[in-house]
Amino acid sequence: MAGYRTAIIVGATDNNIENNEYKKASYSNYGDCVDIYAPGEVTYPNIFNGSTKDYTSIHGTSCATPIVAGVAASIMSEHPEIKFNNELMKKKLIEMSIKDVIVDLKKRGSKDTPNRFINNGKRSIYSPDDGNIYCGILSDNKTLSCFDGCCNKEGKCVNFQNDPWNQCLIENGCQSEFGYCTSKDKSVNECEKELKEYEECLIDISSDMNKEDLMNKCLIIKSDRCDTFYKHQFTNQSVCSIAKYNYDNNNNNNNNNNSYNTSFDFIKNYNQEKYKKYINLCDENLDNYKEECLNNISHIEQYRK
After folding, report:
1. What's the CA gap between 182 and 23, in Å, rounded?
2. Lowest mean pLDDT across 29-43, 60-74, 257-271
3. CA-CA distance, 66 to 63, in Å (whole number)?
4. Looking at the whole model, is its pTM more than 0.85?
5. Residues 6 or more apart from 286 whose CB is under 8 A from it?
6. Burial category of 96 from C-beta neighbours within 10 Å (exposed 0-12, middle 13-18, buried 19 and up)
7. pLDDT score of 247
């Protein structure tokens, strides 16, 4: 069925998240025929022995597919004015999907596998009594904290991945007792320290470089250390994602630190597209280098014969 192009083809990911990225499940399909990925592990009540408390977990693309079907159903219910068919729903799901959060999909699958993760477009979390969950002094017990973001002045947890920069500022009412908060000056100072710590990762790569320089820079940018640094930048888990909005206002205070100004300008103008371009260039170069090595080995073996 995965080759039936008019169907909506679903792949599965593991449920564990690493650095805000998913991995393709080992049992999942892959290739250009896959339209979208969804979590492949689900928990359900185990009622076969008459229990009302037991639960168990299963995994498979048969679990991922109903999740996508559920999202499709919710889209249809919210837009009764639209008469959806397979192609229109597929287009809508792809449009709403979260792009490029499945790590190493090309290595674990194939180079032509689309990197799309299911998304229903919602950001609000609701409690069982159908009320919006608040944090800080506006929460039910006035003690609820945010563990993966900040508690803004409206009492809502704002996830780092949703680019909450101005809502996490103390100047804007961020509730520091109930989650992460910073100030304009503090964010710039902390970003300066971070950029100094990861200074070796702030490099440009070009196809015009000689092979040795290109290889050396590729080894640096693809290292675990630099990989983590850039992923934190692109998922707003770095204080620099907040500081870049406040840098212009504090630039005069840093005029004497040319090294910092240069580093900050680099990261401020750096984006995920440029990073991917560098990584793809490195992968191509490494593949060519590998092929060259194999050819040399083959020539040596023939010479020995």
Report:
1. 32
2. 257-271
3. 6
4. no
5. 215, 218
6. middle
7. 62
Helix axes 258-268, 240-250, angle to 10 degrees: 130
Q: State yes or no: pLDDT of 32 exceeds 70.
A: yes
Q: Which residue has the tokens 């929460």?
A: 139
Question: Contacts for 139-144 with beta carbons within 8 Å, 24 or more apart?
Answer: 143/178, 144/178
Tell me, what's the pLDDT at 116? 92
Question: What is the Cβ-side half-sphere exposure of residue 14, based on CA atoms within 13 angstroms?
Answer: 15
Asked whether the beta carbons of 103 and 21 are under 8 A apart, the reply is yes
Beta partners for residue 80, in sequence order: none
Exposure on the CB side of residue 292, measured as CA atoms within 13 A:
7
Q: What is the dihedral of CA 239, 253, 250, 199, to 10 degrees?
A: -30
**What's the rounded Cα separation, in Å, for the pair 22 and 100?**
9
Is 231's pLDDT higher than 80?
yes
Mean pLDDT of 63-81: 91
pLDDT at 129 over 70: no
d(CA 214, CA 220): 10
Domains of the chain: 10-117 (3.40.50.200), 136-178 (no CATH), 185-304 (no CATH)
Residue 158 is encoded by which pair of tokens?
Answer: 């704002």
Which residue is listed with tokens 């083809």? Answer: 9
Q: How many CB atoms lie within 10 A of CB 151?
A: 29
